[in-house]
Amino acid sequence: MNQPYLTIKEDGSVEQTIKKSQFICCIFRIKNEEQAQEILAKQRSLHKKATHICFAYMTGDQDQIQRESDNGEPQGTAGVPILEVLKANKIHDVLAIVIRYFGGIKLGAGGLIRAYSSSCAQAIEAVGIVKRVIQTKVTITIEYPLWGKLQNFLTNEKIALLDTIYTDKIQAVICVDSDKLSDFKQKIMDLLAGNCLFETGADVLNYVQP
């Protein structure tokens, strides 16, 4: 998927106990289905005594690969609820696994749906969401008197400085969303009345706050 999209900030896990059953949600950022299956195999090995290991994941350029499993829970009470939480958060390239150690008390269909949904939702909240974007590295060269004006603009636009080089002039190194590069350059040219030079570098993959 080349367009910007949301995903999780990092891998992580959360646990909760509901009527003596332990639910552990492990959530991972994935690149493809093969990686998802490798992670699932590892989690199954780590939790051999678990009663159920349910999961859902979405990946592919258009999220065309969507998989879910109830792993022995009543149909539609585990895998689908996990998948629906991923969809509701509009996140992509994510695998969520909810591991259940049965505590002896049945939860019923509604209770199971709530347990698996809330486990996944709590994991997403714990790790956070970021936006995956293709950005272009840009170096802006200006005279010293213009530095304050450029700094204020970058701060207002929430563009982070990667580096600042001080010589006879100032060079500000930043990253800009590639699809917004032309508009960005025009804004800087207008702001500084054309008194700047641009050097465009390579495209890079970054994860930024949405």
Automatic annotation (TrEMBL):
Annotated Impact N-terminal domain residues: 19-124
Gene Ontology cellular component annotations, sorted alphabetically: cytoplasm
UPF0029 domain: residues covered: 140-194
Organism superkingdom: Bacteria
GO biological process, one term: regulation of translational initiation
UniProt-listed InterPro entries: EFG_III/V, Impact, Impact_N, Impact_N_sf, Impact_YigZ-like, Ribosomal_Su5_D2-typ_SF, UPF0029_Impact_C, UPF0029_Impact_CS
Similarity comment: family membership: Belongs to the IMPACT family.
Xref: PANTHER family: IMPACT FAMILY MEMBER YIGZ, IMPACT-RELATED
Official protein name in the record: YigZ family protein
Species this chain originates from: Ligilactobacillus ruminis
